[in-house]
Design brief:
alpha+beta, Four Helix Bundle (Hemerythrin (Met), subunit A), 6 helices, 15% strand, 3-stranded antiparallel beta sheet, Ferlin_B-domain, Immunoglobulin-like
Length: 300
């Protein structure tokens, strides 16, 4: 038998613009209070940890800044290694000082933060896919606003004001959809590099759908009457379902952020927050709903 012949064909050169640029992201949080701590955890010191991906993960050994201050870690570093430690230590302060819970009733416990609130920060580098999160945030806020409007309508179904409320909701929906189209067609939603084919097709889909919903909601407003109210309300609710379908992006952007409570070397409670809910933007509609806001979170 003759040896098999292998044909080698050159591949198409990789287009560097197909990859998103790496950007530095800064995650910051302040723990204002820590209350309602279970009695079984009240007799041991505990602390908080914040992380995004592996950045900030102190307990599992991924946080070099934590190792730097750990008495059990390798010491005596010098030269380039010492410089690296200093750089990384400045990038992360992902854990709070450990403190023992206090109580007034021996049922629920709290951490004595008083006037000194612990601050956490993690500086890390990720591919810049902010436009995906921005896009989802704008549509998500349109959904939230419409849900508020329709809930208000439902509360006044027996009132004479229900028609006016539905018209107002549809008018706001039309304006918000037009605002989305305007923002998404501008250059403020992120750099042009790194867009996949799915990114481009999803952008076209969202623009087309919201433009249509904006037109239909404006037309529907003119058709709202007392006799046709229930039918028009049902149509408005169908618009809401279409918008909800478009909120989540099928592709990844930033990792989720985790807030952990650690006691006796164990993770005892946590809260997981999607990255898009924390992302900042100069455009208000693109900001995450938790960005820059004091939030009450119940840890699991």
């Amino acid at each position: 038998m003759a040896p098999s012949e292998v044909e080698v064909e050159p591949t198409v050169p990789i287009n560097e613009t197909a990859y998103a640029r790496n950007e530095e992201f800064f995650l910051f949080a302040t723990i204002m209070d820590a209350t309602m701590i279970d009695k079984k955890l009240g007799d041991k010191p505990m602390y908080f940890e914040i992380s995004i991906g592996n950045a900030g993960n102190a307990l599992d050994g991924h946080n070099e800044s934590f190792k730097m201050y750990d008495p059990g870690s390798r010491g005596g570093m010098s030269g380039d290694e010492d410089d690296l430690q200093e750089v990384v230590a400045g990038s992360w302060q992902s854990t709070t000082p450990s403190s023992k819970p206090m109580t007034h009733d021996k049922i629920y416990y709290f951490l004595p933060y008083w006037d000194d609130k612990p601050c956490l920060h993690v500086r890390s580098t990720w591919p810049d896919y902010r436009r995906r999160m921005y896009n989802s945030n704008i549509i998500g806020k349109i959904v939230d606003k419409m849900e508020e409007g329709l809930s208000e309508v439902q509360l006044h179904l027996e009132d004479s004001t229900c028609e006016k409320l539905l018209k107002t909701t549809l008018e706001e929906l039309s304006a918000n959809c037009n605002r989305y189209v305007s923002i998404s067609k501008s250059s403020v939603t992120g750099p042009g590099v790194g867009k996949t084919k799915l990114d481009k097709e999803r952008t076209k889909l969202c623009q087309r759908e919201l433009e249509n919903i904006g037109i239909m909601s404006r037309n529907l407003k003119a058709l709202v009457t007392k006799s046709s109210f229930k039918e028009r309300l049902k149509t408005a609710q169908s618009y809401l379902q279409k918008l909800k379908f478009l909120v989540e992006d099928p592709q990844d952007s930033l990792p989720d952020v985790f807030i952990w409570v650690i006691s006796s070397g164990r993770r005892v409670a946590y809260q997981r927050i999607p990255g898009r809910e924390l992302i900042y933007s100069v455009v208000d509609e693109e900001c995450g709903r938790h960005c820059g806001r004091v939030q009450t979170m119940f840890l699991k």
